[in-house]
Specification:
Shape: globular
Order of helices and strands: EEEEEHHEHEEHEHEHEHEEHEHEEEHE
Distance between the termini: 31 Å
Structural class: alpha/beta
Radius of gyration: 21 Å
Length: about 400
């Protein structure tokens, strides 16, 4: 739980271009934490922290105003594990295929993955590298069984002495869904640039802020993601760190839409992509559309007859509940296929998680999809339970 002992600090300038005049585009008072599961709801226990999303008019970057203590955010309660996510296999295939397209058949000397989590992608990198090293604080206390040529450093990137701990100059550096968590992302990019070999290839993936705004997916703003990169601000960060844009690709089927940028240390790179315009007024307008959409969905659900079941006990569900202005007490429960979540709930939500089985029948019930990043697979799963109606709070999925 969050209490007054949890430290935070405020960011007063853009983390990409250091511009000192940022504009607040979203105000999120008492914004809940995500990814916390408990055995029962804890009424009146503080689990929120005032938050704001700010926008830099100079480079188009967005970032949180308040940064909570990383030791708390990624402590024992932090539950994200790549092997448990339905998004992981196709996301890993996407990166592996893109790497092959960029460097067909190349065998690397030293591949480094920043934020390797449970090493799903790292294992793939080892197949085409002499050595592969993963960096992730997940392994701070327990080092996994390592394969020959593979090593894991159980630290935050900021804590790693790259010169001594990597034992060489990497010629492949990959980061997927990690850079947005790092407060001093620009400085860490520069450190990686310094240690990399002259012919190194960098491949980095982040959730795309431009798609988030266009598709009204502001539920993806949460405390762990400090930075919100669009292609424009991402390339700006790369260039300021000494890198040179090579190419990019979008993965529209991962996290509501991500952008993967390839870059190098060589000045013989591609032309920088055109800046994608984004305005404070446009972001605010789309955020209001998002809130109005969810408010209407919440009212509609609570006016429907019969039992209403949620499907998908997502880690991000507290943010959806926050924007829908509900504790989901009107639900009969939330169905989820992960057995580790059965019988649990969230600190601020009045709903219990159940695991469906062969007896589950939603024929007389309404199913509302409560995991917005898993709408397509849940739609397929719901065919087995034949609900009377299916409601999806988001319009784009």
């Amino acid at each position: 739980m969050l209490d007054d002992t949890i430290s935070s600090r405020s960011l007063t300038e853009c983390g990409i271009c250091s511009h000192g005049v940022l504009e607040t585009v979203i105000d999120l008072p008492q914004f809940p934490l995500t990814g916390i599961y408990v055995t029962e709801m804890v009424p009146d226990t503080p689990n929120g922290h005032d938050q704001k999303l700010q926008f830099c008019p100079a480079c188009g970057h967005a970032q949180l105003e308040h940064v909570l203590d990383p030791a708390f955010l990624y402590g024992d309660h932090y539950v994200h594990r790549s092997s448990a996510s339905h998004l992981t296999p196709p996301a890993v295939d996407f990166i592996a295929d893109y790497l092959e397209a960029l460097r067909p058949g190349k065998r690397f000397k030293l591949a480094v993955e920043i934020g390797c989590n449970e090493m799903v992608l790292l294992d793939r990198l080892l197949e085409r590298s002499e050595r592969a090293i993963g960096i992730d604080p997940l392994w701070r206390d327990t080092i996994p069984d390592e394969k020959p040529g593979c090593e894991v450093i159980g630290k935050f990137l900021e804590e790693v002495d790259l010169s001594s701990e990597l034992g060489g100059r990497p010629d492949l550096i990959i980061s997927t869904h990690n850079l947005e968590h790092i407060v001093d992302a620009g400085r860490q990019l520069a450190r990686l640039m310094e240690i990399a070999s002259d012919d190194a290839l960098f491949l980095m993936e982040v959730p795309d802020f431009d798609l988030m705004v266009k598709n009204l997916r502001f539920d993806q703003v949460f405390h762990q993601h400090v930075h919100y990169f669009g292609l424009t601000s991402f390339v700006e960060a790369i260039e300021r760190a000494g890198g040179h844009y090579l190419t990019h690709v979008y993965n529209y089927r991962n996290w509501g839409g991500t952008v993967v940028v390839a870059f190098t240390k060589s000045t013989n790179s591609a032309t920088r992509p055109a800046r994608q315009p984004r305005t404070v007024a446009g972001i605010k307008q789309n955020f209001q559309l998002f809130r109005d959409q969810l408010a209407g969905t919440s009212k509609m659900l609570q006016g429907m007859s019969g039992e209403i079941w949620g499907y998908g006990a997502a880690q991000m569900l507290p943010t959806l509940a926050y924007h829908m202005e509900t504790d989901f007490g009107f639900l009969a429960g939330i169905l989820d296929d992960c057995p580790k979540r059965t019988g649990l709930t969230y600190p601020e939500l009045d709903v219990l998680i159940h695991k469906p089985d062969e007896k589950t029948n939603l024929g007389d019930s309404v199913a509302v999809i409560t995991a917005l990043d898993a709408v397509r697979p849940i739609m397929n799963r719901l065919r087995e339970f034949n609900p009377r109606f299916v409601v999806v709070p988001s319009k784009v999925y």
